[in-house]
Specification:
alpha/beta, 388 residues, 14 helices, 39% helix, TIM Barrel, three-stranded antiparallel β-sheet, 2 domains, binds magnesium ion, Enolase-like, domain 1
């Protein structure tokens, strides 16, 4: 089996004004991603997704160019059934054979960022192909699924102090969620404003619903500690990205100083970055984004690090369908997973990009058992929303 064709598009889907939300990332008026299609000579097609922007909107011209003009030519003619070997070849670049025989990595200079987003997109598509070729869902290739449904949490929560309770309660009513996540940090200004919103959320939801908070890395260490102290009696289930990913020691300091579990990792790429998070004791919950951290191949290694450090895994799944399904399969197979992120913001890149209906009922989401990643992309939709 050989790779015959690779094509990536910057897909940009506008979001209707009434469905937009505003956060520290600004007004979210589009949902963007790099969507990649890998076709084999025998006609099997796999789909992947690469990310390079926080929030739903972003510019993807450079990433798509990288995939189409630099990565694709290297892979045409290769056997697609070797996602792990291809991952190492792309990561190590011209020294990949030396690295393979030496038994350790020798990455190229640009070893993070767009390079890893491109590798992620290809890797997800190759796992999709491998599963379709073998007639098996990807979770089976990873060792099996621990359940046929997994609990999901509702991810949203941008409303102000007067309406946050209603907003989060509507999530609980809509999908039967037992856990919800709200945004805090820079969109509120000082820590006491975020803390008041969390208290209002807890008052509305009562004690039986888990509340997680996500600061998108917008506090500094001192303000993160102030915030954590102010919500110490609100039973917060996790505090996500209290500070930027480049301040791992600061994150470790916050973790040591507060009683709330720390979640982090959507801005990290590769097993090496997550090893550092674990060794520095900076996080309780790893949140790799499979469209950015290195795809399923790397996500599986990151999941193993989480498990071996007695930490947990909750991938960042604010994404399009290929990335979302990749995370679903990873969680189905990983001993460290426990909950699935389900975005309650407008997400056409999940709901309109694929033919399947993806929904949460009684707070649970189905793990698909179709071959590969288990979704069917609407190619017309991709082409209709592709940016020239
Ligand atoms: Mg987040």
């Amino acid at each position: 089996m050989r790779i015959a064709r690779i094509e990536a598009w910057w897909v940009r889907v506008p979001i209707e004004r009434k469905n937009q939300h505003r956060s520290d990332f600004g007004q979210i008026a589009t949902f963007d991603a790099a969507i990649v299609r890998v076709e084999t000579e025998c006609g099997i097609v796999g789909w992947g997704e690469g990310k390079n922007a926080a929030g739903s909107a972003g510019e993807y011209a450079a990433l798509v160019h990288l995939i189409n003009r630099e990565v694709a030519p290297v892979l045409i003619g290769r056997d697609p059934r070797e996602p792990g070997v291809i991952w190492e070849a792309l990561y190590n670049g011209v020294r990949h054979r030396t690295a393979a025989s030496a038994g350790h990595a020798m990455p190229q200079l640009a070893r993070r960022g767009h390079t890893l987003a491109a590798i992620s997109a290809i890797d997800i598509a190759l796992w999709d192909i491998l599963g379709k070729h073998l007639g098996a869902p990807v979770w089976r290739l990873l060792g099996g699924r621990k359940a046929d449904k997994l609990p999901a949490y509702a991810s949203g929560g941008w409303a102000g102090v007067d309406t946050i309770g209603d907003q989060l309660s509507s999530y609980v009513e809509k999908g039967g969620f037992r856990a919800v996540k709200m945004r805090v940090g820079a969109l509120d200004g000082p820590p006491h404003v975020s803390a008041a919103r969390v208290s209002a959320a807890r008052a509305a939801l009562g004690p039986g619903i888990d509340i997680m908070v996500d600061a998108h890395g917008t506090f500094n260490v001192g303000d993160a500690k102030r915030f954590a102290a102010l919500v110490a009696d609100q039973d917060v289930a996790w505090f996500e990205e209290p500070v930027i990913a480049d301040d791992k020691r600061g994150m470790a300091e916050i973790r040591a100083a507060c009683s709330i579990p720390i979640a982090a990792g959507e801005s990290e790429a590769t097993r090496f970055a997550f090893r550092d998070l674990a060794v520095l004791r900076a996080a309780d919950i790893f949140q790799p984004d499979l469209g950015y951290c290195g795809g399923i191949s790397e996500g599986w290694k990151i999941a193993a690090i989480a498990s071996s450090f007695n930490l947990r895994l909750a991938p960042h799944l604010w994404a399009g369908a290929p990335c979302f399904f990749a995370g679903l399969h990873l969680c189905a197979a990983s001993p460290a997973s426990f909950i699935i992120e389900y975005s309650l913001g407008a997400n056409p890149m999940i709901h309109d990009l694929v033919e399947e209906t993806i929904s949460v009922q009684d707070g649970m989401i189905d793990v698909p058992d179709r071959p590969g990643l288990g979704f069917t992309i609407s190619e017309d939709y991709v082409r209709k929303h592709a940016v020239d």
